[in-house]
Amino acid sequence: MLQELIIPGQRLGSTEKFIPGRGTYVRNGIIISSLQGKKEIERSGESLPVISVLSLKERAIIPQILGKVTKISQKHATVSILLVENIPCQENFQGIIRIQDIRATEIDKVQVLDSFRPGDIIRAQIISIGDQRNYYLSTAKNEYGVLFAQSEFGNTMIPISWKQMQDPKTSIVENRKCAKPF
């Protein structure tokens, strides 16, 4: 059985059922993770069990996510995070890809609309916890970007370059920041 990966901001339980431990904090009676790691519950005597999050320090890997682009603006794309490190999220988490985090090169030429569209499935990395509602994500490396997209006509598109996808039925080409296949 896969052990659940805990990410910062994830709710772990109530202070009525647990005592907060390492790697957690309390807000409005809810114990929340302050770091990425594995959940540990220690039972001791007659008191409530202690819930902690143990860091994954031995891993120097920045967490990857799979997400769905939900909306775009001129400055960023909003993403609903579906998987973290191939583990499904238990709650709804949201991230944003700022225009400066879309590509590593030609940053001044990047347009959000030429990189993503609502409905695209993307691979990205978490670069920061961000604000209270969003994680900051990046697709600046070659292996990050759009994995799956549909054309205006609802057909599955295929990548033809690192910045374009094509509808094989209509031959229409649309701009995307494509992920390099593994």
Describe the fold and architecture:
InterPro entries: Csl4, EXOSC1_C, Exosome_cplx_N_dom, NA-bd_OB-fold, S1_domain. This protein is mainly β and 182 residues long. It folds into two domains: 5-55, RNA polymerase II/Efflux pump adaptor protein, barrel-sandwich hybrid domain (OB fold (Dihydrolipoamide Acetyltransferase, E2P), Beta Barrel), CATH 2.40.50.100; 64-175, Beta Barrel (OB fold (Dihydrolipoamide Acetyltransferase, E2P)), CATH 2.40.50. It contains no helices and 16 strands. The protein has strands at 5-6, 11-14, 19-20, 24-27, 30-33, 37-42, 50-55, 64-72, 76-84, 87-98, 121-128, 134-138, 145-148, 158-161, 164-166, 173-175. The strands form four sheets. A five-stranded mixed β-barrel has the order 8-9-10-12-11. It starts with a strand and ends in a 7-residue tail after the last strand. The mean pLDDT is 88.
Key terms for this structure?
182 residues; mainly beta; OB fold (Dihydrolipoamide Acetyltransferase, E2P); five-stranded mixed β-barrel; four-stranded mixed β-sheet; 0% helix; elongated
